[in-house]
Amino acid sequence: MDGSAIHLLAAGTVLPGPVLDNASLIRRFQLPAVWEQWIDTFVGTRQRHFCVDVETGERRQTMADLGETAGARAMAAAGLRADDIDLIVMGTATPDRLMPATVNEIAERLGIDRVPSYQLQSGCTGAVQALGVAWRMLRSGPERTALVLGAETSAKFFDLSADITDRPPAELINALLFGDGGGAAVLTKEPAPASPVLREVYVELAGLGRPPGQTMDWYGTAPADDDRSPVNEDYKTIEETVPKMAVEAFERLLDTLGWDETDVDYLLPPQLSGRMTRRITETLAVPGAHEVTLVDEIGNTGNAVAFFQLEHLLPRMSDGDRAIGLSVESSKWIKAGFALERS
């Protein structure tokens, strides 16, 4: 038995509020009916969940709410209590506040204290970065068990009072792509029946000389004398770049582990949108791998994505199965991934 092996015991997730499908979103913002077909054709995501009630503007849940629920579910699935957790790490692009860090608010609610605590500010690869920090700390330090979290509450950036009927698709794309959600996983040095081993975590900044593909200001509404949008996305550049980076991350993991692409039983591709995920999977072309994709039903939940995929993956894995998860962050271009193996 590998004494340095880090096992993935369990995952837990949460989605806020009711389902918001494309037709409901179009009615709410009084967009032309043709938009529903446009979303189906060019985005491919059918529905999502928001922490904000789009009819009233009421905030129903915060990121701390999502993290508390997801963390509690992951710990319960692993059969652990708060005093079993030696380390807590979170990745997010949309924390509740600058300070206190949302990860510490979540730890407070879960009863976790006197442990190393980290919050990573990052786009979609933040979950993999958080897994990497926990994985490396468990392998090299005295800590034995870590709670790793990822969550997004992007709907709070929407100005629900604005008239968006004349906005170009480039500005509306974020409301169509993203959904809110939270996820968590438990990593440990202690092996358990059927728990896969986290074999590798790969994170690489690849943004030198590349303009940002996405920018997001701290506040959802720009000042009255500023006509800039608080969230901007160069979707065309993202569409061209992300599949290539996903392939690069995939090949890097295979090379590091000495695996062949035919050794991969499950593929967890980036979940940008339904259409983009299909394009990425076609570009990867991994023969025989079962794809774990959820973006059509829950939207792009950013740093929660990997945990939704893991929650679906874990019950499916059999002895000898191998899985690779991939993620690309497009704000300043990070490619990342992780590999699991059930021995």
Automatic annotation (TrEMBL):
InterPro entries (UniProt xref): ACP_syn_III_C, ACP_syn_III_N, Thiolase-like
* Entries under Gene3D superfamilies matching the protein: 3.40.47.10
Q: What high-level taxonomic lineage is stated for the organism?
A: Bacteria, Bacillati, Actinomycetota, Actinomycetes, Kitasatosporales
* One term of GO molecular function: 3-oxoacyl-[acyl-carrier-protein] synthase activity
Q: Where is the Beta-ketoacyl-[acyl-carrier-protein] synthase III N-terminal domain?
A: 120-196
What protein am I looking at? Putative 3-oxoacyl-ACP synthase III
**Beta-ketoacyl-[acyl-carrier-protein] synthase III C-terminal domain residues:** 254-324
Q: Which Pfam families match?
A: ACP_syn_III, ACP_syn_III_C
Please list the GO biological process terms of this entry.
fatty acid biosynthetic process; secondary metabolite biosynthetic process
Give UniProt keywords alphabetically.
Answer: Acyltransferase, Cytoplasm, Transferase
* Taxonomic source organism: Streptomyces versipellis
